[in-house]
Amino acid sequence: MQPVAVLLLAIAIAPALAGGTSTIINETCAKLPNYYLPRSYCTSVLSNDATAVAAPDVRALAVAATNITARKAASTLSAISYLIDDLSDCRRYYREMVESLAGVLEDYRAGRFHHAAKAMVDKVSVVPLMGCDIQLFQGLAGKNPFSQENADNDEMARLASDIANLVAGNI
Fold it and tell me: For the Pectinesterase inhibitor domain, which residue ranges apply (predicted)?
């Protein structure tokens, strides 16, 4: 190959190798209406995909954009599937917590304050909520859509546990 031809070829493919924005990406993104997404989103997301950067025309860019969307949708579907599994475990933790709270209330009615306080500490105030948080954060989805609810329940369970211990004479 001639040195000039090699140089021209290198210049032509350099943007694709560098992950830069191609002309076709810039032109296409400039033509799109900005109703929902800014132009910067269009150029950024497409410029980070090698297939989109290498697209020779708008049709190939449309295919690349559709493939990016398909990968993102598949990733979200996978996260949802993992969350469903993790949430099933959380449902079990909370079901056990509700059952334990029913037992605590029975202990209160029967005057077994020490037993109620112990049950609050052992079965209600930490274990179910921590189990759910751990399951969701360490699960394959790596997300916890109930962070605030778990924190609220944890605070209330700790407060109720402290009051139960006060009534039982443990504080």
Answer: 24-114
Q: Which of 62, 42, 64, 41 is nearest to 51 (CA)?
A: 64
**Does pTM top 0.70 for this prediction?**
no
Distance CA 73, CA 79 (A): 10
Question: Tens of pLDDT along 128-145?
Answer: 667 777 777 777 777 777
What contacts 6, CB < 8 A, 6 or more positions away? none
DSSP letters of 91-149? Answer: HHHHHHHHHHHHHHHHHHHTT-HHHHHHHIIIIISSHHHHHHHHHHHHSTT---TTHHH
Distance CA 160, CA 111 (A): 16
Q: What is the rounded CA–CA span in Å between residue 105 and residue 99?
A: 10
